[in-house]
Amino acid sequence: MNQKIKMKTPIVEMDGDEMTRILWQWIKDILICPYVDLKTEYYDLGLKNRDATDDRVTVEAAEANKKYGVGVKCATITPNAQRVEEYNLKQMWKSPNGTIRRILDGTVFRAPILAKGILPYVPSWKQPIVLARHAYGDVYSGVETKTAKGDKAYLVVEDEKGEVKEKLLVHDFAKGSGIVQSMHNTDASITSFARSCFNYALDIKYPLWFATKDTISKKYDHRFKDIFNEIYETEYKEKFEKAGIEYMYTLIDDAVARIMRSEGGVLWACKNYDGDVMSDMVATAYGSLGMMTSVLVSPDGNYEFEAAHGTVTRHYYKYLKGEQTSTNSVATIFAWTGALAKRGELDNIPELTAFAKKLEKATVETIEEGKMTGDLVALFRMEGVQPVKLDSQGFLRAIAEKL
Ligand code: NAP
Ligand code: MG
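That is the input. Now the predicted structure with magnesium ion docked in place:
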């Protein structure tokens, strides 16, 4: 029996809810702990414990992620009115992902996991398209209202002393009622978004594309373009040239057209709304939500790995009734391997990073041999291979065998 791989610094482990909480334990038991002397600092972000700690546990976990640099998070319930009743909650706690993002101040990177036989809907896509979504401001913290006929809407800016610096007419609603909206971003947030994107592109050695609509939005979107250009020229140009990758700025509609024609292998930086919309398009076009990784990277180099999907509630209710489920654990496995590999890299433990890569390979090869969960069976096309649907644990055991 080989010795288990030793770790130096703990990974911040954030447990979660429902079916993904079940998968979480099984992944550790079946695929990680037999090989790695796993060192984690454990935070239970399950809804019950968030409620019991008045959500302090989420803040503590995010602080720990900042302290140690690498965290891995299980999917969690973001409570709504129905969950407040179901779990008898003290209040409707905020989204844990939102809280963690605010504390870490990061950018979310999402990438599809490719397996032969699971064909993207876009035939030319051969490599992953990785999406970087700015997770601050714009319409997500917009201010909006309805207006009546005869109203006039202005955009007013006051200086520190409260004196009006600028008053711009947005629209005169003389002819009839309507709607009005205003939104903002900050130079600091755009700057950290830009640095995260440049750093990540260097990390994965992909060219970086960034796009806005600066021809129309000559102040707002143009600011994004200028900040990206300035940071590229002063801090990253040489590093990009050395790595043999390029930075390209273009218009958002041109970027969409180029993405559709591309072979993939691109890091696509998107403003908040573009990233929200385009990440769902890209995920779906590559096959399944269960095959999408997600990592939050902060400008000061903290990483939080997670799956891009939710807690798979419908499967959990089946599990509670004692029925078999066939829930795809690939994204959650890759959240763990992402964290293990990054820890290995930072602590100079090459065997830990190598183990993570082997586990990823075993996972993908298990699918390529035709063993998979139900969500993938309908998508799988490979000559001479008949896909077999395994239950949730059966799939993990098949990976373990391969490993
Ligand atoms: P979801 O959990 O992603 O599930 C939606 C549906 O997608 C499932 O019912 C299932 O379809 C399919 N699916 C998703 N992941 C799958 C997987 N790994 N394997 C197989 N099928 C999968 O989203 P939701 O139902 O909208 O949300 C459920 C809970 O998750 C909510 O409480 C929400 O707040 C939370 N959530 C958390 C996060 C996060 O923590 N990052 C993200 C999103 C949602 P079938 O039922 O047809 O099999
Ligand atoms: Mg979305």
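The chain is about 45% helix and 20% strand.
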